[in-house]
Amino acid sequence: MTVPRKIIIDTDPGQDDAAAIMLALGSPAEVHVLGITAVAGNVPLALTERNVRIICELCARPDIKVFAGADRPLSRSLVTAEHVHGKTGLDGPELTEPTMPLQPGHAVDFIIETLLSEAPGTVTLCTLGALTNIALALTKAPEIASRVRELVMMGGGFFEGGNITPAAEFNIYVDPQAADIVFKSGIPIVMMPLDVTHRVLTHKARVEKIKAIRSPAAVAMAEMLEFFERFDIEKYGSDGGPLHDPTVIAYLLRPDLFKGRDCNVEIETKSELTMGMTVVDWWRVTGRNPNARVMREVDADGFFELLTERLARL
Ligand code: BDR
Ligand code: CA
Questions:
Q1: Which of 85, 106, 198, 244 is catalytic?
Q2: Which sequence spans correspond to the domains of the chain?
Q3: Whole-number Å distance between alpha carbons of 304 and 201
Q4: Residue 154 and which of 169, 194, 205, 253 are 20 to 30 A apart at CA?
Q5: Is the beta carbon of 17 within 6 A of some atom in ligand 1?
Q6: What is the Cα–Cα distance from 69 to 32, expressed in whole angstroms?
Q7: DSSP string covering 175-214, please?
Q8: CA–CA separation, 32 vs 269, rounded Å?
């Protein structure tokens, strides 16, 4: 029997963040969620921490430790994405206010304390939003970098360009300075960029399969996806919207669904025109050392089968 991999999910729900959290909570044999840390991003922090608790309750897991983290990026003003996710961040289904508590203490301290108390190389960080909490933790306690097993992030885009500006993907754009700290930290990074996430589309038939599970969590998920995709269908003219964040958890469960290569990635932090761009040396033309495994391909059908199967276990 394999021991479940210990993870901390850092997130800004967001309907696709909700799908990622549900995928993790539906996979207890493979992943053990030590805690979930909220960050400002898609919507302000007061909503993201609330949304995490709503999702945990939907999954009948009020025991999960949820912490609030940074309410703004390191040095820029917060940019949010209500135009995609709706006013609450989880628009779509009727949801009730959560009753499970928020943990006392700051998310950044939870991340530091967990990494210092667990055995080195055993905790994986899964980031689904701006990297502010992780950068703050690395700045406050640089010794944690060498203790992280791996950081798997949804962020960036290269061949596919950006989604919030022509050059930048939303999570990196919200806090480029934080991303820069993380990419320079020496932590082994796996990056799920738009190049991958734009290939996992919420086709109608896929959402119907989720709805057909008929559990409260699955029905809420399907309704969230129906809301979330309307923006991207209009924007990209695609059949369904890209389901970004669950690719991070899917990678932990089934790395064979993804293909990529080790590259150097640098973050643009100076130019307003290309702010937050992930400059990926895919063709290794710079001689700079690889600092991330950048994914480019995904088995989309395999991904949705996995997601649907795990949602059915909740
Ligand atoms: C990322 O931005 C957010 O809006 C989504 O939740 C995802 O994490 C995609 O660019
Ligand atoms: Ca997110």
A1: 244
A2: 5-201+242-311
A3: 9
A4: 205
A5: yes
A6: 21
A7: -HHHHHHHHTS---EEEE-HHHHTTSB--HHHHHHHHTT-
A8: 34
Q: What is the mean pLDDT of the chain?
A: 96
Query: From the CB of 163, is ligand 1 less than 6 Å away?
Result: yes
* Residue 99: partners with Cβ closer than 8 Å, 6 or more residues away: 57, 62
Ligand 1 atom nearest the C-alpha of 194 is: 10
CATH class of 5-201+242-311: alpha beta
Report how far residue 155's alpha carbon sits from residue 174's, in angstroms, rounded to the nearest whole number: 11
**DSSP string for the chain:** -PPPEEEEEEE---HHHHHHHHHHHT-TTTEEEEEEEE-SSSS-HHHHHHHHHHHHHHTT-TTS-EEE--SS-SSS-----HHHH-SSSS-SS--PPP-SPPPSSBHHHHHHHHHHHSPTT-EEEEE-S-SHHHHHHHHH-GGGGGGEEEEEEE---STT--SSSSS--HHHHH-HHHHHHHHTS---EEEE-HHHHTTSB--HHHHHHHHTT-SHHHHHHHHHHHHHHHHHHHHH--SS-B--THHHHHHHH-GGGEEEEEE-EEE--S-TTTTT-EEE-TT--S-PPP-EEEEEEE-HHHHHHHHHHHHTT-
Q: Determine the atom of ligand 1 nearest the C-alpha atom of 17.
A: 6
The residue whose CB lies within 8 Å of the most ligand 1 atoms, and thus the one to mutate among 9, 12, 249, is 12
Determine the average pLDDT of the residues in 225-229: 87
Cα–chain center distance at 284: 27
pLDDT at 185 over 90: yes
Peptide bond into 89 cis (omega under 30): no
Q: Using one digit for the tens of pLDDT, what is the confidence trace for 250-280? A: 999 999 999 999 999 999 999 999 999 999 9
Residue 244 bears catalytic tag? yes
pTM of the predicted structure, to 2 decimals: 0.97
pLDDT at 231: 77
